[in-house]
Amino acid sequence: MRITNAFPPLADQVTDFDATVVKRLKDAGAIILGITNMPVMAMDVQTSNPIYGRTNNPWDVTRTAGGSTGGGAAAVASGMSPLTIGSDLGGSIRIPSAFCGIYGIKPTENFVSGYGIFPGLGDVNRRTVRAMASLGPMARSIEDLKLCLPIIAGPDGYDAMVPAVDMSPKPKPAYKELRIAWSDNFGDVPVSNDTRKVMRQFIKKLADKGCTVKQINPANFDFPQVWETWGKMVDLQINVNLPSSARFFMYTMGGMERRRSPLLQMVYPATYDKFIEECSRREIMIAHLEQFLMEWDVFICPVAARSAYKHLEPDDVIFGYNIYHTPIPVDDHQLNYWMANSAYTAPFNTTGHPSVTIPAGYSEDGMPIGLQIVGRRWHDMELLDVAEMIDAAAGDYREPAGY
């Protein structure tokens, strides 16, 4: 099949092997219907590219479907397919799931093999992205997520980062045994009134079921530092593939752009010592969140600052990266593009924790609002079981009109 990565130099690329996730699905009897749309090299939270154009949201075609798995989310939400696979480095499964009103899981990092993903971009046996990225399913029910994830997960003989994990069913807790932490405030990044209202109604339904709920953020978890670490880890794993002259140009000319958001970072010069420094800082953050989740069964929070917004065109494109200066409106606030979209998702890429997105309610103008349910690393199937209970008690899945 023609696999372009939405990247014009690869517009005619036809691969001669299947990625592990594709092979495992086909071996299990899945029928591949087609390839869904994405932004160039999956590096945006809207879905548009020079080869295939733009993906619309089935709830309102004037709005974004999110990204980077926007095509997959729109296909599942509109009934074209019951299942799609996405990748998530900063919200690329969770944001389109929330914007299109479907379910998705960003598994624990390295829970699913990345072998064969993004073919044509470098050597398949030379892997620079070793942390923070995940591959996972998106569907119209948690039941379908639970069906798919064990099929695609686990060691494959190619990706040595993927361990064997026990995915056998565990006893489900009763609602009165569930301890749920929640927050709608990460580093004072505002969320819309609609999002806050949906969140509080959602939490009340869980409390009415007998769950213990508490509004609290993880201790010793400084969100600006978490966002900055995410940005530096992205740069040290992805942008190091750029020619040295391009990196120098990005560093010298991109300072103003980086000042717009703590998520936009660059480490220059990129040295081994600096990479180890960021990995070490990241590991401390992982430990703090893991300690928090040993006290609480799950942590519930928004996916994005608001529901899907009108399609927004980039102000510039540099080395394939879309540059946005136009802010995203969140009620009376005007938020930086990346903060409005990824401030609530990127922290769980920084730490590699699994997160399930479920439709929780709707904005006043009828757009879906999703919430994410975060659990302990490597406990993905248990998290799906708990998310299924939470969805039964408080979720609000609907189909978009006309589909």
Task: Tell me, briefly, the overall form.
Answer: globular
Tally of separate domains? 1
Q: Would you identify the regions where 5 or more consecutive residues have pLDDT less than 50?
A: none
Percent range for β-strand residues: 15-25%
Number of strands: 16
Instruction: Report helical residue fraction.
Output: 25-40%
Distance between the termini: 28 Å
Order of the strands making up the biggest sheet: 5-7-6-15-16-10-8-9
Radius of gyration: 20 Å
User: Which structural class best describes the helix and strand composition?
Assistant: alpha+beta
Counting DSSP H or I runs of 4 or more residues, the number of helices is 12
Annotated CATH topology: Amidase signature (AS) enzymes
Secondary-structure element string: HEEEEHEHEEHEHEHHHHEEEEEHHEEH
Highest-level CATH class? Alpha Beta
What are the salient characteristics of this protein?
403 residues, alpha+beta, 12 helices, 32% helix, globular
